[in-house]
Amino acid sequence: MSGALRIVELEELFAALTPAAVIAAVRNGLIRHARGEVSMPPPMQMLFDEPAGDCHIKAGRFRDGECFVVKIATGFYGNPERGLPVNDGLVLVFDAKTGSPQAMIRDRGWLTSWRTAAAGALAAEAGMPAGARTLGIIGTGHQARLQAEWVTRHLDIGNVVVFGRSAERADALAEDLRRIGLTASVAPSIDALCESSRLVVTCTPSNDILLPAGAVRDGTHIVALGADSPGKQELDPVLFARAAAVMVDDRDQCADHGDLSHAVRRSLLAPDAAIVLGSVLAGNRPYPRSTADITIADLTGTAAQDVAIASLALSVIDGAHGSTVRS
Description:
By secondary structure, this protein is an alpha/beta fold. It folds into two domains: about 5-110 and about 305-320, ornithine cyclodeaminase, domain 1 (2-Layer Sandwich); about 120-300, 3-Layer(aba) Sandwich (Rossmann fold). It is about 35% helix and about 25% strand.
């Protein structure tokens, strides 16, 4: 890639990427991160109150790669009232030898959404209880819908139970999931959702505990996605003390602003007690799971995932155009 800055539009991404390919790329990114093969500085976050929103800036590079990536993703939660999507953003790709910009991917936040969906599916895979046939989703937004679809397809689960603080939005999500072939229902309470589900994904922008320790049944695996900025929280910190295993996408990030951070500040769990998810996916850190074990995967999103999905997107698009791609 040389000359004028290349611009990749969202429509090209929709045409080029499949969930299976994204999951494979994100798996590779998480494994390489666990092996120390990804260079990435701490993320930068801007938080907004009026209106409520956030901006995440993450950067990274596979150490043997020829490019590095800077991702800017925004989420403004009142946007639907303005007729706009909650998420937006773009991804910038630079030549790692010269620093020159190679491409701007105008993904409108979709690459972040897809790589988060992929990470959720992989984290669910890593701790899925034997025989689990129902996925519990806490949340009703864009990512909740993606988690419901991607996790069920990846793990061959056909039944979903949704809980949302807005009953109307929970009903709408369940109806949407039924339209894509899933059996979906709405739980009247968190307790009811936990009673029916041993695999639970939390995906909300909550600043308060949504999943109390007392509601979680033995044998449950929890994937927590929402606490990706300082101040956010979905899980009762006591759950981390009860957990037989805690997995994280990145120890430092999760100890700083993930759900894990609330347990760390209360001295309920040391950060180094958490297993890096990529090590589990690589088979390097398997753990025995009894039928009574509670396990947690805390995900804050990493630049390794952003590098993986941006590299995949450019590779697939260039391949479709018959171009030579540098990976």
